[in-house]
């Protein structure tokens, strides 16, 4: 059951481009993000109430340091959302998928920098191969900044979230609440200037962005408590794999030789790193089993 929940979460994240490109006629990605923030906030408020997580919110509101971290997390996730929506609207889904493929390796490097975590030689080899892949991608992609922005913003978001010690739902609820006044102000200004004119179907799609953002998060939060970290690490590649397929085969985005070589290097690096992580997990289990 929990594996199905995790699978559903990653598949939903993978097919996100198919949903957001239905709003391609809304030319301003900031407007889409503004609606996504406000409708996500409403959805998350309901979820926080159902999950009885208001105590987490109150404790954070009373702690200036945790509030500052929550504000920083809000900025990082808004950057991630904005870059992703821009990529979907501008046929750069393959570049966005590369960013999410690179995210685990960026997270590892940040763990070394911020938490003094240590990598073994095999893991450093994987990081080096991924770096070569980035170099190959840079030779052919004019939008490598999309990949780097998504990988960096989400990896840093993970680091900051680790410090806030909030659950996934309560954390995102507080982050969207911090962003909500800015989103509301931007959308109000757009409405006053009459640059915002939606049909009923468009407004419905924008409103559904809240639940669509929240549902995979709830599935992930539920499943991650019961599934081993190594297994979750392997499952997380489902999302960017689906995004890559959408960009390459449905949208027909060009995949030049150097770009494909870059992807292959990143895939090899992820395979090496994941297999090494699995071996380490098995070694840690062995003494417990023997005893």
Provide the descriptors you would attach to this structure in a database record.
12 helices, mainly alpha, 291 residues, globular, 0% strand
**What ranges have pLDDT less than 50 throughout 5 or more consecutive residues?**
none
Identify the overall geometry: globular
Helix content: over 70%
Kindly provide the radius of gyration, computed on alpha-carbon positions and rounded to a whole number of angstroms: 20 Å
Task: Compute the average pLDDT.
Answer: 88
Q: SS-based structural class?
A: mainly alpha
How do the helices and strands follow one another from N- to C-terminus?
HHHHHHHHHHHH
- First-to-last CA distance: 30 Å
Q: How many helices?
A: 12
- How would a textbook summarize the main sheet? none
Number of strands: 0
Question: In percent terms, what proportion of residues is strand?
Answer: under 5%
Task: Provide structural commentary.
This protein has 291 residues and is an all-alpha fold. The chain has one domain. The protein is 84% helix and 0% strand. The protein contains twelve helices and no strands. Helix 2 packs across helix 8, helix 4 packs across helix 8 and helix 6 packs antiparallel against helix 12. The longest helix is centred in the last third of the chain and has 34 residues. It is globular and about 55 Å long. It starts with a helix and ends with a helix.
């Amino acid at each position: 059951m929990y594996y199905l929940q995790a699978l559903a979460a990653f598949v939903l994240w993978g097919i996100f481009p198919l949903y957001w490109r239905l709003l391609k006629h809304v030319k301003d990605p900031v407007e889409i993000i503004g609606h996504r923030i406000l409708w996500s906030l409403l959805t998350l408020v309901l979820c926080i109430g159902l999950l009885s997580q208001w105590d987490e919110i109150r404790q954070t509101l009373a702690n200036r340091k945790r509030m500052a971290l929550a504000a920083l997390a809000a900025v990082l996730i808004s950057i991630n959302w904005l870059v992703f929506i821009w990529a979907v609207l501008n046929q750069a889904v393959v570049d966005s998928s590369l960013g999410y493929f690179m995210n685990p390796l960026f997270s590892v490097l940040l763990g070394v920098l911020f938490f003094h975590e240590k990598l073994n030689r095999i893991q450093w080899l994987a990081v080096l191969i991924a770096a070569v892949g980035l170099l190959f991608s840079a030779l052919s992609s004019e939008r490598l900044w999309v990949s780097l922005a998504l990988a960096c913003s989400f990896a840093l978001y993970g680091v900051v979230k680790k410090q806030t010690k909030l659950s996934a739902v309560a954390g995102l609820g507080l982050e969207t609440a911090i962003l909500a006044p800015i989103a509301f102000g931007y959308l109000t200004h757009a409405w006053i200037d009459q640059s915002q004119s939606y049909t009923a179907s468009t407004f419905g799609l924008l409103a559904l962005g809240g639940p669509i953002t929240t549902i995979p998060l709830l599935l992930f939060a539920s499943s991650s408590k019961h599934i081993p970290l190594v297994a979750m690490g392997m499952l997380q590649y489902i999302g960017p794999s689906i995004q890559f397929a959408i960009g390459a085969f449905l949208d027909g985005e060009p995949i030049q030789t150097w770009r494909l070589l870059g992807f292959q290097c990143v895939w090899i690096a992820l395979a090496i790193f994941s297999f090494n992580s699995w071996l380490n997990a098995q070694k840690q289990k062995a003494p417990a089993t023997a005893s």
